[in-house]
Amino acid sequence: xxxxxxxxxxARFLSHPNPHVGCVIVSSEGSxxxxxxxxxxxxxxxxxxxLRDAETRGYSVAGATAYVTLEPCSHHGRTGPCxxxxxxxxxxxxxxxxxxxxxLVAGQGFERLRAAGIxxxxxxxxxxxxxxxxxxxxxxVRKTPWVRLKVAASLDGKTALPDGTSQWITSEAARAxxxxxxxxxxxxxxxxxxxxxxxxxxxxxxVEAQRQPPLVVVDSQLxxxxxxxxxxxxRPVWIYAAxxxxxxxxxxxxRGAEVRYLANPHGKVxxxxxxxxxxxxxxxxxxxxxxxxxxxxxxxEGLVDELLLxxxxxxxxxxxxxxxxPYAAGALTRLDQALALEFKSLEAIGPxxxxxxxxxxxxRF
Length: 365
Prior knowledge:
Layout: H1 2-10, E1 22-26, E2 32-37, H2 46-56, E3 65-68, H3 82-89, E4 93-96, H4 108-115, E5 119-122, H5 126-132, H6 134-141, E6 146-154, H7 172-184, E7 187-191, H8 192-198, E8 215-218, E9 237-241, H9 246-254, E10 257-261, H10 271-280, E11 285-288, H11 292-300, E12 306-312, E13 341-349, E14 352-359
Helix pairs in contact: 3-4
């Protein structure tokens, strides 16, 4: 199962919006017969890849055990049911980490395997498998993506100088690592303020990528210039607005953007409704790279699941912070009102420190 989990991790940059799944087929004597992980959408799932690998090696899998990190699918989607392929191959036992949260599967794969006389064991490696697919489970259970907010800051918590200058606080190694997190995301989110001030591309350039994730722009009044560099990479651009502007909308759509209006009562983009819409577009993980105002709005509305924080070993003194007004109630009056987080990992990336901090309890769904 450990090897299956490693294979699952190998699919992080490839299988979206499908879950990342690994499979290892082992003989009754304990020999590894075949292995594989989920391919790009429309391609084979992990079980099929493992069966093909065994066939290529000249092995029969009859009577073997399949270790898989997620319940084999039981429905016809972009591909056929994996449970049927395992049954046809003569697999004797399936050890799976998790039940699939997709309602089209949700235990039906296990039922079909058991009905065919295959022994099924569930739970081995469950925590690791779920963590690898936290975005998929979020979309299936909560109907919203897993929202990861990326921030590059100095050791004293500043993300820019008072005039907005922020390039570059962190090292090239940290920036490349950030691009890897972009590459695994279902979509990258920014605000129109960042587009206007920095004119970024916000694509994946510093690491090898199988795909360019769609770019999402929160732009209440449709101020995004049709000449912005965000339109240079070949990828979908989705703009969420609140105030209709026919001329601006036409200019943006001429550049290939898709504009959707989702207004809240205050004339701003309804951020919670936007997340639900992104889930409907099959976005599992939403990677946020925005300014302190949009960061603050997302945090104030309780929409951020975890922080991806790069801290540079330097002090900037006066400057802009990580998020503007992150609390709906304003300034705190007691320490126990502080937003509680849980450290998930701390790792040195070049000269900088990468911290993944999760909002306490956000993964309990």
